[in-house]
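User: Predict the structure for this protein chain, please.
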Amino acid sequence: MSERSKFSLMVLAIGIVVTITLLCFGRKGGTVMDESAMVNQTEEQPIWLTSRIYDEYAQQDRVPLPWVPVQQKGRTIVVWGRTMQWQHSLLPSSIKSQGRELLAAPMQVIVKLNGKEHPVPLHRFRILQRKQSRIDFLAEGEVQGLHFQSEMFVEFDGFLWVTLRVEGKRRKADEMRIIVPLAAKHLRLYQTFARPLAGWVPDKPLSLSWLADAKEGIVNFYHWFGDEDGGLGFTYTSLQHWVLKSEDNFCTFLPDPKNPKYVINLVERPSFLDGRVFQFGIQATPIKPLPPDYHMMKGSTVRFEPWRAMNQISDDVDMALVWPIPAGTAMRSLNDPYHVDRKVLEEVKEFCHRKGIAFLGVAHCPHRISHLNDEFAQYADEWKRLPENVLEWEKVPHYMACGKSYTYRKWLFYGWAIENIIKLGLDGLYSDGWMTGQMGCNNPRHGCGWEDEQGKRHLTVPVLEGREFNRVMCLFLEDHVRAPIPKTAPERTGFPRYHFWVHSWEFVPSVMGFATAWLTGEFAAYPLQGPSMLKPEGTYGKCLGLGLFRARCLSTNWGLPNLFDPIMPEAGENPPTDQQTRMAYAWFLPHGVPIGLLEYMNVKTVVKVSEVFRRFDARKALFFPAWRPNPYWEIESPVDPEVMVAVWQHPSQRQVLAVISNLKVAENVKVRLRWTGFPQPHIRNALTGETLSLKDDRLDVSLPPESFELLWIER
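Assistant: Here is the predicted structure, written as structure tokens:
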């Protein structure tokens, strides 16, 4: 055999060994590498794949604004606004948010053996790793020869991730579950990732199904319980290792006026526990502080006509975007960061910057791909969410992608971060939808799903990968963007100077919380009850109701400005009515809900109301939302949750702006207010200028259904 032949065989042998080694031992972060990371080395790799920028940001130990580093002392862990303690249980014994205790008693892991229930005690607690952005630790306990390990980490946003392992004797347990006793006094609202399951806390037991929509593959993987000022959320990624009587009840809420409980049903039938692993997340809300003027923030799409609200009140608008429609106007699909129309976007950016408005580029759907993407032919099978979910947009099928895929995360990040943020000089991003978590996935090519003993593949949700992507984008934006702030806004000291605005009908702070703002409200056009908001007779009271509005649409219970998209037929230069626009203000103003897309509302009414708040300098005022008491007005009658008052206190404390709202759908209301503020106030109707007088410190205001009045009070 020639030397050349010997050399060729040697190279071939080495190649085989290297390939086998990579297949068998290739690991990243302690888990087997995704197939998506193993690319064809014989072809020239694209720049987005060879670039290390995503990985470099993913590895950084940094705490972005407005959060602070994680602190730990003994068995107590502190993040911004929240404290978690461990005493006698594997899981927290206390979770406080803004000083309010959210647990009525310690969370307990309960195992039932031979008909007897045993709470798993805490025997050992030790810190595994300390970083400014994260602390890893381990809690251990034993019950009758069964060893329980709760390996956990807490990150700077207060997200606690639990990996609970059971080892020991090959013996069966009757049941195993986690009991979360919730503080009843802070329990009024709830939301889940199932659209109908949100609103006022029910008075009957609530069975929570893994699949919110089996046909669409929507997984109900996030549950939250709380009130207007905060609460406690639970996040799940997989039911592998669970033993359930039915996936229709993988978690249960048990209401009780004094002792409400949330139950995680891990094992419901006699089963061996050895080797089982259960994972879930816990996060108290709000997850971060709100900007001081969150209640007055405004967003818009870009329109050049001078009569548009955006252009008449441009110094009071925070951010704007353009749509990718009609097809090819700004981007050739719903998500193609490598093929945006740079000329169009640069012209729009210059237009916005002349007005002092932050420009976020083109709205994009980070969870959609199509054959218009250059990479579709090579990567589609690896990137797709399975089972396939297809959206027809402008006669082009757009497939749902899954962020579990490492190469998809790199492609998406490089495209928007480098090709748009850097090259176009954008002030942030607007995502119409969000990265991972939209639906469950079982695509084995990128590591989603699991197979049961009968060979059926089940859906999983890439929660941690979604967190990683959004955290990395957050860090990148913090380093490369300094967006303009409205002239009317106060100094937002300690807050980021970029915009990462995400649209969703449901909110999952554990994944979406790295955004700087959310956009909700579109779901009002697809009512849970009553006529559509797309019709003139539609009302928020019929389509939403107060419970759902507060559960979904507030900013205070999440810690993110939650702008509302008021879809209604009152757009245009001279709309014939402002009935729905006034209705929207009746709902928004007392709740501090900012307006997401101004252009859908009656432009004249929007400008008129906005001018009142600008003259008052409301962005710099102290806001008292309707569900909290305020030092100026009290409603004596009717005592009804749908009749409310909220106030803005001017920094001088010599002026007050108040909104009184009647949110009843079909009832006129005469509201009697009692003045409790400074003596001899001068009161006028802020929109009409009419002077109003107190009688024995009382004022009567008559309000039609779903309407409001604004009062300006001065010393």
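The chain has four domains: 71-285, 363-484, 495-616, 633-714.
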